[in-house]
Amino acid sequence: xxxxxxxxxxxxxxxxxxxxxxxxxxxxxxxxxxxxxxxxxxxxxxxxxxxxxxxxxxxxxxxxxxxxxxxxxxxxxxxxxxxxxxxxxxxxxxxxxxxxxxxxxxxxxxxxxxxxxxxxxxxxxxxxxxxxxxxxxxxxxxxxxxxxxxxxxxxxxxxxxxxxxxxxxxxxxxxxxxxxxxxxxxxxxxxxxxxxxxxxxxxxxxxxxxxxxxxxxxxxxxxxxxxxxx
Length: 230
Fold this sequence. Notes:
Layout: H1 3-12, E1 27-30, H2 40-54, E2 59-63, E3 65-70, E4 75-81, E5 84-85, H3 91-101, E6 102-103, E7 110-115, E8 122-129, E9 140-141, E10 144-146, E11 149-151, E12 159-162, E13 165-168, H4 171-179, H5 185-204, H6 214-226
Parallel strand pairs: 1-2
Antiparallel strand pairs: 2-8, 3-4, 5-8, 6-9, 7-8, 10-11, 12-13
């Protein structure tokens, strides 16, 4: 399938045609009420799913379907429709969570509810994430949850010295640094993971006898994001 073929199905309301289809690059099917917005983990799960499509080729999250795992193919298959009540799908709430948890803003994102038939109280929740311009990528989850615990924003970047405080780079600052030079995604993520691991280890270790040289630290940060040789 393709982004356009899924879009045609949605716009034509031919949701039964998805039965028997495997989830792929362009769509993911969800049962009704798939995200628990009363928990940080539930809100993060939505942000993670939307980010994945925005950083790829765009796609759709379709709510109101039953799926079953296809172990051999490492995917899920739509086996039935399971419409949600309109009262169970709050478009503004979805939009609010996405706006709060993803940076930068995803252009053209649409959240809608489509009834199974005119006047019906049940239907399908549709999240359409259009393909994004390469200059806008990469989209970041501004809040991360791991093991049910929300992690501080420091996981997105490096600590910098500001006056007498040690402040993490904000998601905005990290995004701008990532835009400089457009590092390949896998290499950038690996380098960030290495730095994050180092920071976490440093936090759990005894404080050094003398503070690091702020100017040297800043220079090393700049080298990292410019990919200059040490």
